[in-house]
Amino acid sequence: MKIRFFAALYAAKLTARIIDIVARGRGTNLPGQIALKIDPKFVSHIKGLDPGKTIFVTGTNGKSTTTNLIAHIFKTAGVKLAVNLEGANLIGGVVVSLLKNCGLDGRLKADFVLMETDERFLPIIYKHLPAGHLCITNIQKDQVQRNGEPEIIRRKIKSILNPDITMYVNGDEPNALSLAADAGKSIQYGVERNSRSFDKKDDFFSVSMPCPKCHEPIRFETYNVDNIGPFVCDNCGFETGKNKYMATDVDFENKTFTLDGEKFSFAYSTPYFLYSYVAALTVAKEFGISYEDIRRAFPTFELVGGRMESIRIDNKEVKYIRMKQENPETLQSAINVIASDKNDKVFMLGLGEIMDFDPYYTNTFYTWDCDFRELVKSEIEKCICFSDKVVYDAAIRLLYDGMDENKLVILPTNDDKAIVEEVKKCDSDNIYLITLMYKFESLAKYVKQEAK
């Protein structure tokens, strides 16, 4: 057994080294897959692993940012971590992160293990690497071809819960909170109603969610993020948890919030990111890291690439806000950020074909779970819809929420040059873009090449 383990260790390390030389940043899963192929029990043979010092972060939205925040706090406090900051959150990527922090003797060279874990594959990852701590950000609608619906994911997470696990859970999100009783210990966090909280009108486009306990409708007292906020089920009484860690006095303009009487700054001051800050603070404090160290870490935190970025086109800044494909909550969060800017602006929407599985997927149902009305009313000079597959679907959705058709520009193409040329025609230099990650990367690459 030792021979197989060390053969796997050396083969995987050699593969990782070769990838670093010839294609840095690529192949984040391959060395781990090789290790497991040679030794299926590779992880259990690593010396020094301790479930009590192993933390998983999972959930539909926010797990990458939350993992990176926790890692930044721990490192600022001088704690050595084995962590998959690259976002490779399947078992292969988890093994690679362990490999990087494992000596040639097979011993872990880190104080703690922190892993972002794909919520769908959490049971498989947990089987290889039992964790004593689990942080759940939320369980929401996401990629129906891949994940089905939230209850499927909720059951997958529930399947690993046991008395040995301490769970850090968003007490404002019903699906996640419903799992609190299944863990040995549950620590809840949340956010107080604030200036960015909102209510939904009781009309055709308003969407709620079923209670995970009795399946009757959940009633939100307010929303801090779409389908996240203080709630109650009027049928069974299931309600927002007693949050041990609660962000209060949230000031988005000055980028501060208060928790337990302590004031913290948060550079990425949107409701969506605030929950990641509070989740990371909760985990760090429960592991004994002081508020002073946490306060020192927050201002120097840099966001994972791709969440909020910008490109410049003819001295115009195009601000990109990422959404996850087929994910109404992240789309709504992006819409809300843009709607909060009351200045004149251009809005660009580029939905596209989902190419995860064959046949490829072009359904835009998730846009009908979102409310564009505040965005439509927020001084939009022009709205540019582009796509080679679903441009008219996107435009029609905006028309249903009151967009003036005279402000609509339809580009039935995914061609980077055509999109950039349309941006150049804009009078405003305040431009927002919502599209899929691969499309933004393609646009950014084209703009960079054009500038040479």
SSE layout and pairing:
Layout: H1 2-22, H2 30-38, E1 54-58, H3 63-76, E2 81-83, H4 91-100, E3 112-116, H5 122-128, E4 133-136, H6 144-147, H7 150-158, E5 166-170, H8 174-177, E6 185-191, E7 219-220, E8 231-232, E9 245-251, E10 256-259, E11 262-265, H9 271-286, H10 291-297, E12 308-313, E13 316-321, H11 328-339, E14 345-350, H12 373-376, E15 380-386, H13 391-400, E16 408-411, H14 416-424, E17 430-435, H15 437-451
Parallel strand pairs: 1-3, 1-4, 2-3, 4-5, 5-6, 6-9, 13-17, 14-15, 14-17, 15-16
Antiparallel strand pairs: 7-8, 9-10, 10-11, 12-13
Helix pairs in contact: 1-2, 2-4, 3-9, 3-10, 14-15
Key words describing this protein structure:
Protein-Tyrosine Phosphatase, Chain A, six-stranded mixed β-sheet, 452 residues, UDP-N-acetylmuramoyl-L-alanine:D-glutamate ligase, 3 domains, alpha/beta
Average predicted confidence as pLDDT: 92
- Percent helix, as a range, is 25-40%
Based on secondary structure, the structural category is: alpha/beta
Total beta strand runs: 17
Q: CATH homologous superfamily name of the largest domain?
A: Mur-like, catalytic domain
Estimate the global geometry from the Cα principal axes: globular
Largest sheet: 9 strands, mixed
